User: What shape does this take?
Amino acid sequence: MNEKVQISIKSGKAYAHSLTDIVKTPNGDSLQTRYLYGPQLDALRQTLWPTTRTSWFGTSFGKAVNFLHFSDLHGDTINLAKIVALKAIAPAPLEVLFTGDMVNYNWESDSTFWETAGAGSFLVAIGNHDTYKGGNWYGATAAETYARYIAPYVSQWGVISQTNLCYYYKDWADKSLRLIVVDIMHWDATQASWFTTTLESARTAGYHVVVAGHSVGGNTDSGTRNCPFDTIGANRTRWENESYGKMNTAVPAAVQNFIDAGGVFVCYLCGHTHADLFRHLANYPSQLCVAVGDAGIDAHVGNNATSQLERVVGEKSEELYNLVSINTIRQTITIIRVGADRDTVGRHIGAVVYDYSAHQILNME
Assistant: This one.
């Protein structure tokens, strides 16, 4: 796709921005869509979304289950405000899914900003920083964690959940899709049994399944090197060699049993890596992991939000999250990047369409 660009210069570096990321307000002023907060929102409401740069995503939007997926905010209230604003102008139902590390560093870090920002309707998975208490990554109990991050908001989510437990699921019956959110920080035999039962009931109902959690579902293969949504040089020690924050190996094993029994698995949606991943599990090649880089930026909140992608305040790369559209009829997942759209070697991270039945990429921009 030939793309006209404008070049802005900041700190001696050049950054390319698609002209389709510029919209006209009703009074004729040009406005970067990255500035989604502030008084311009009402003016943009009717003009922003038609400029979505991938027409095939626009066609799917409204016919699929659509998510705004972000992760690893680390207390970045500036970028959270932009996400809240973007949901407010979505033209079709848009679920916002956050996959953990809400707070900057530990249990003592502020979490009240979430409610203040108006993010209470966002689905939440628990991350390792969210439970880091008393010098122990697993220090906060499930009940404590539920009381802080789940209980104040869960009534807005439309999910099937249990008091004092930080895992749940949500169905879109008309789209035959089930989202299962696991709690990697409090995994035990009870959750393992619940997970297996929840997968099986999805299979018997004919629902396709997405599993969301903070980290990827185990060791991955070397990555999809032709796909810019898989960061070249991603630091594998960030998720494969750590002693904390790892998804229990029982999760992909149960998913494989679900697949072998005839269930349809879409993908994992996760974070933790502070890099984009688009790759399959090494031991389960039919299980795709999609990790989104960190929504927080270290310039806002300090080095707990250090990214494996270059991030610059005042540029598009200040933000980072994905729009994800899952079409269970076509059996496709479409992902569009909003914000930081250049990987570590300069490839454009635009959009990808993946056939989760045939396990192959259909289109990239």
User: Anything to note?
Assistant: Residues 54-364 form a domain with the Purple Acid Phosphatase; chain A, domain 2 fold (CATH 3.60.21.70).
